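Our platform keeps sequence and structure together, in a single record for each protein. Nothing more is needed to write down the fold, since each code stands for a local backbone conformation. An entry from our holdings is shown next, in its original layout:
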Amino acid sequence: MAFSMMVRRMSAVGVKASGSPKKVAVIMSGSGFQDGSEIHETVAVLFHISNNEATYDCFAPDAPQSEVVNHLSGTSSSSETRNVLTESARIARGKIEPLSKLSAQNYDALFVPGGYGAAKNLSDFYSKGSKLRLETDVNRVLQEFKTQSKPIGLCCISGVLAAKAFPRCKVTIGGPEQAGTITSIGGKFKEAAVDEIVVDKTRLVVTTPAYMHDAPIHKIFEGIGKMVARVLKLAS
């Protein structure tokens, strides 16, 4: 088989022809889209990281969830409490550390999947809107990666974290109806389809809408795949 054909085939399945693998960090916010990380999005992020021959470590705040939602009925339980780190461990297969232990100096890039956990546990955007505050370690980690010029990838509603952390950061969280959400925080909004990405080249932030659009799962995976690939390229 000709060498050029081998390279094309390797690229098609996300395998790098040469170079050492990138090591990245993934921040989770629970398990389940209504009160934690969106599971499809999180799995897509992990899949595409691995498919690009990078390695990852998972992190989550070691703190109570802001609320617990029954994903069958959609109702919130006032009598139940769950821990963000413990719940995130379900997706990470137990291989996860408290977010307080994450240091940007040990990684090439950062990823944050979506889900309401980003708006409830990684920030208080769900309850405070444009007056949101980021969880202390979330803000610390985002600032560390930016200071060290290391790229950050976010999908779905987690784009609001970058809009808050980095004034005038260009992000997407879907269609034009979401523009006011980002601009009210201080970010710059750009519309994108589910399989598209938006890149802020100055701040090295890459976003994709994911389930901010009502789209089939293969399209969610496609958009996240492009986001992951671009982040890893920026980390090169």
Residues 1-18 have pLDDT under 50 and may be disordered. The chain is about 35% helix and 15% strand. The first strand starts at residue 23 and ends at 27.
